[in-house]
Amino acid sequence: MPFTVPVAEQRFLLTHVAGLPELAAMPAFADATPDMVDAVLEGAADFAEGVFAPLNRIGDTVGARRTDAGVVMPAGYADAYRDYVAGGWGTIDAAPETGGQGLPFAVATAVLESLGTANLSFALCPTLTVGAIEAISAHGSAEQQALYLPKLVSGAWTGTMNLTEPQAGSDVGALRTTATPQPDGTYRIKGTKIYISFGEHDLSENIVHLVLARTPDAPAGTRGISLFVVPRFRVGADGTIGAANDVRCVSIEHKMGLHASPTCVMSFGDRDDCIGELVGPEHGGMRAMFTMMNNARLNVGLQGVEIAERATQAAVDYATGRVQSARAGAASRESVAIIEHPDVRRMLLRMKALTMAARALCYHAAGQVDRAHAGDAAARVRVDLMTPLVKAYGTDIGVEVTSIGIQVHGGMGYIEETGAAQHYRDARIAPIYEGTNGIQAADLVGRKLTGDGGAGLAALLAEIRAEAADEAGLMALVDAVARVGEALRTGDGDDRLAGSYPFLTMTAVATAGWLMARQARLVEGDDAFAQMKRAAVRFYLDRVVPEAAGLEAGASAGAAGLYMVGADVLAA
To answer: Exactly one of 200, 400, 434, 471 is catalytic; which is it?
Structure first.
């Protein structure tokens, strides 16, 4: 079914959650006028609906294919990508000196949401390029920035992150890819990387791989990792493309979903002729990796919103047209559309409320990113705290909402032709990649909760209390988050990790509930948008928030119960 980008919702959140008027008052974002932002939102919506969305079905059914000539995308994708580059849709928040428009990251977040909702697989390509831009901007030399950033920003070249190896998944320190220095200052790269999204394709004239590898005699573990830029085609000092580098895709994974995103096994240096350049200092790869990963984690959380929005629109459309049974208790026994039945209403309202709440979380984080880039230290702390919340909660919501979408469709939801199953299949990877959601929870109770003595969480909870004190249920959840947070911050390592996931969910729901309550106070009028906003907010505050408060027992239970039996018994 066709879909409509929720531009009114995006505009509302940019104003009232991301705080765009405040951002536009900063000299760096002076061009973010209401007229300019509206033009960007409307243009991105038209492009997403008209160009990216029609390719979603063929992307799923045909998918990317590996041929003798290399990886080939489905019909229409190359033309659509050229239109994406020509339209400047990757340049929204990039620095003007690199060819960007210099608008806030929050606006770029809305644009990316539109593209990802239209075609989640396709939008992965520019999403990964953003990570490469961030890494080179933060850690690359002046020469590397001048050489690579303009092409990456425009989209003429795409970027990838090459971290994972067969024996080194979440344990990045176990990687074995090597980088041997050469007399001219370059390095010969040799090794294999797996799960490389858009590692090879036929969309752009070059692909810029960012590769983690070890130099000779490097320290063991993560301390010995360095980052290298390895283009698919070698690049001259003047930016001209030269001969092919010794890097290639040797296979494409056969996946549950995201079929139009080629997930490649990449081989570097089969002929001992793969040339790369060091990015940042030797053994500084982990710092550079986190630059890429933190940006990617926010955008992956946004993917949960994107696929939830698409699934919700499809479910509402189906429920409106599917006539089945009379409404219970009604005088008439005539069959009605299933949207009139209470349990279907419950599912649809839950889908809408969860999607709105996760989107608010993403937009709040995006606004804080812009403030942090402007030098706001408190915003930097907030971004660090929000990153695991956005990534984990946003992707959990994507999975829950797409699963509910199948349920709304009934038996037809299990049939591929409705598209409901694709939404779930596409969504299911998001809680896994860019750091599993369990890792996000561990990061929250580890680095984020203990690194500053809990000050960042305390500041967030204080802000929620000050603004939403009239919401009793939300305040009860906030109090529970404070109790559990303090216990986990000072508790035993195993107990802390055992309670980390429910604690993350509690914290994310409390934050989203605060942002939802704000929207109900600020929405004006009585049109359909305002009515839906108020109904979704009440559903979230009255039903979802109490559910999260109920997680306190599990978050506080400790690790002992998880180890009542040994691994041998658990595996029996």
So the answer is: 434
